[in-house]
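Q: For a teaching handout, I want to show students what a protein-ligand complex looks like in token form. Below are the inputs, and the small molecule is S-adenosylmethionine. Please produce the holo structure.
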Amino acid sequence: MASAPSASLGTHLEVDPSVLVDLDVDSYDSSSAFVSSTQSLSSSVDQYFFENGRRYHSYYGTEKNHMPTDEKEQDRLDMHHEIMLQMLEGKLHLAPIGDSPQRILDIGTGTGIWAVDCADTYPSAEVIGTDLSPIQPSWVPPNLKFEVDDMTQEWSYKPDSFDFIHARNLSQCIDHWDELLSQIYLCTKPGGWAEVAELEAKIHTDDNTMAPKFEKWMNSVAEACARINRPTWTAAMARELLEKAGFVDVHVETRKQPFGPWPKDERMKKIGAMVMFTADAGAEGYGLALFTRVLNMSAEESMTICKGASADIKNKNYHVWSPFHVAYGRKPTNTADKV
Ligand SMILES: C[S@@+](CC[C@H](N)C(=O)[O-])C[C@H]1O[C@@H](n2cnc3c(N)ncnc32)[C@H](O)[C@@H]1O
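A: Here is the structure, written as tokens, with S-adenosylmethionine included.
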């Protein structure tokens, strides 16, 4: 029988006593220097503006996505994809979609890196990745295409048209998960699958080494998201939303994502190290605009909180992790199959 993943929720993540990593916090990327002006550069779908040193996309308005879309964020997203892959032992998803799916949709695809890997993995499938921002590459597998689309508007896809619909790391962008999941359900083929993978905005420690500045950052992110009606994703919420949408055979798997290379387990150490390398970009990417725009903090105060979080993540004395929930369910094939 296969053993449980080393990061499953019931496992105590053991600390590697030999961990000696303290990165130089002063090496903070100075390209994020404050710029207080907001500048509109173009009137096309590429429309973007700079705020506090980061570039944000604005074609659909500024409130849909409070995360930057610049190269620093794109590099972070690509590294984060590798982290998520490692969290799932190299798998792109957990839903049992079979070997030859015909149509797959990845909503909020970001740089499209998951969709590219998915198109390579399933040459039988036509894969579509959608996003508000056209930040995807143009050289992609022939069975993949990207579309600019707002997933919170009514979808133009035919009902019952996808074998698999995938959504990852979107909870900070979604006001009405129930409406989104209804559209996902409608467009999934009977017998097809949907999967939503989200990191919960909460940190835990198994050995009383809570990272105080990182916790402050995480609580501030959660507070800002709650204020704009984008509550953090939990395992219970995942199950309830998928089942309410009509999915059956709903599974929710929760794993521990470590921050920093402190775990003894080799795979978890690698994950934690990659998370540490994205700490500056992640703290700023998730936090900066939420803190200034939603919590009305000054740019300086926001940056202090972001820098505090990344410093804590690099501190070998703090051993913290967040729950990563992967939820998937199947659209019933007939009414008798429905719960
Ligand atoms: C944190 S990134 C996650 C990217 C990708 N899913 C991944 O896991 O690598 C969130 C993405 O969702 C996109 N997004 C946010 N709101 C959206 C919306 N209403 N419609 C489509 N995409 C959206 C953003 O532009 C961004 O690329």
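A: Two things your students might notice: Residues 64-65, 67, 77, 81, 108-110, 114, 130-133, 150-152, 168-170, 173 surround S-adenosylmethionine (CB under 6 Å). The helical segments are 71-87, 113-121, 177-187, 212-227, 235-245, 266-277, 279-294, 299-313.
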